[in-house]
Amino acid sequence: MSEVEEFEELRPLLFSIAYRILGSVAEAEDAVQETWLRFAASSTRPASTKAYLSAAVTRISIDVLRSARVRREEYVGPWFPEPLLNDPYQDPARAVELADSVSMAALLLLERLSPLERAVFVLREVFGFGFGEVASAVGRSEAACRQLLVRARRHMADGRPRFEADRQERQELATRFFDALKDGDMGGLQELLAADVQLVGDGGGKAPQFARAVVGAQNVARLLTAVVPRLAHLDVSAEPHEINGQPGAVYRDRDGRVLQTVVLDILDGRIQTIRAVLNPDKLGHMGPVADAWALDRELKRARR
């Protein structure tokens, strides 16, 4: 097998590692590309291509994350990971770990960890790498990696996201939610929401967004039924889609450009959190992006 073929076979794994460390599709793709450049430039073939490439993409991702942390401290409003429509890496033996670790809630929880803790947790807990491979990837001893993992597990356990086990039930509830939203059915919507549900938007100061999280079933239902049906009159449509392994939708304008993504966290038969990503910088990997400000102005004119 040629170098290119070996690399392409491992590309889905490399992207999935980088995305979980970085929470960014664009940065993960850049990290994978940089990994290829280093691999192609190497004069010797590694004993294990998988171990070599996984270690390389991990180190690159750690460096990127350290600089990204500084930018995120100055971020306007809540910061969410870039929406991921499809995880390219699949492993039936680790399906549960892979699905849990890619959810928005889990990725936000990973933000609590240091870059090294995050990398160790992702490699060991999500992808099942041995401690020797993890140690080589992050440049620490196996003993140090075990300590990093203990700390990471403790942080993750404090706020471990839990979701409905039955995927079909989640999808059915999500379908009812988006149908009620489309119809402007406030009562029907409210029945699907947890009493303390939160609606949170990430616009990054580059798109219209709520000043703060909207909390409570009645408040969230009132706001959504006031805004979403009006958007439908402007030919904005919701395309149901699993996002970060959770039920959600991609909203598009009349020209098919991406306006926002919406993801639902569901537990005990109720929607606990609704996360909307509107920052255009985080939507470009899904295609052309809509002008949210122009739509907002159009919406305001329609109200008059």
TrEMBL record:
GO biological process: DNA-templated transcription initiation
Ranges for domain RNA polymerase sigma-70 region: 7-69
Signal peptide range: none
Location of the RNA polymerase sigma factor 70 region 4 type domain: 105-156
Lineage: superkingdom: Bacteria
UniProt entry keywords in alphabetical sequence: Sigma factor, Transcription, Transcription regulation
Alphabetical list of InterPro entries matching this protein: ECF_Sigma-70_Domain (IPR052704), NTF2-like_dom_sf (IPR032710), RNA_pol_sigma-70_dom (IPR014284), RNA_pol_sigma-70_ECF (IPR014303), RNA_pol_sigma70_r2 (IPR007627), RNA_pol_sigma70_r4_t2 (IPR013249), RNA_pol_sigma_r2 (IPR013325), RNA_pol_sigma_r3/r4-like (IPR013324)
One Pfam family per UniProt: Sigma70_r4_2
GO MF annotation list: DNA binding; sigma factor activity
Assembly description: Interacts transiently with the RNA polymerase catalytic core formed by RpoA, RpoB, RpoC and RpoZ (2 alpha, 1 beta, 1 beta' and 1 omega subunit) to form the RNA polymerase holoenzyme that can initiate transcription.
Family statement drawn from the similarity comment of this UniProt entry: Belongs to the sigma-70 factor family. ECF subfamily.
PANTHER family assigned: ECF RNA POLYMERASE SIGMA FACTOR SIGJ (PTHR30173:SF36), SIGMA 19 FACTOR (PTHR30173)
Name of the protein in question: RNA polymerase sigma-70 factor
Annotated source species: Streptomyces ferrugineus
